[in-house]
Amino acid sequence: QDGYERGEQAEAKVENAFAAFASADPGLQARLDAWVARSPQSFAARLARGEYYRHLGRISVRNGSPVSEVDGHPDAANETLSLARRDVEAAIERRPRLGIAYASLIGIAMAESAGDQADRWFNLGLEKDPASAALRRAYFLSLRPWRRPDQDPAELMAKLDELVKHLGGAGKDDPGLAALRGFRAFVTAELLRRQRRYDQASRYFRDALAQGRDPLYLRGAGLNALQSANSVYAVGYLSDALALRPQNPTLLDWRARALWS
To answer: Using CA atoms, how far apart are residues 91 and 148, in angstroms rounded to an integer?
Structure first.
């Protein structure tokens, strides 16, 4: 993070460092609690534990459990996401220019179906860390029409188009920002993939990847290839995504499926 703020390190390295804590290992919580207790002013300790809690909350939502009830325990998921939000907010208090933390808060808000809170965190994060690609990526993801079913899809896509347009010539020194210019094509590809129109989707994934090899685009292209029974391309795309996001459990899972097929 120090290197990122000095302009000497890519933000992706900070993302990868904290992504290591997105784990369901039951033994990890005690170690994170001890780290926070030992270093109460450490932004890293609070964000690491926040990522752990956020991952647990995302698993609950992804498995189809209502946020208000997990495994028969009312409000268990709400409590986990609240713990995540508390830690991530504490990290921001200790390190204000922390775009990846605002990105996490956007993710938490969307897990709770709170689009208005996602909007709020994006605007606050943009003030503190205007160069953050992670912040923009998280917010762009929140604007996908199927994530906000109560809002007009056309308005959401128009908002996304406007934000992508404002990227302008960004990315000369930051490939992460440059790649986001392909986000509109990526969302179109994902819509087509969800409709099982795989051939059309693949063209839009290629358009997105022409702007930059964002791991989201590579993962999407890999899943599209796998679902269209093209396992060779699927392995290639997912391997490239893993090169950018080493040890990502979702990518490892999908690549294993592609290799098996």
So the answer is: 28
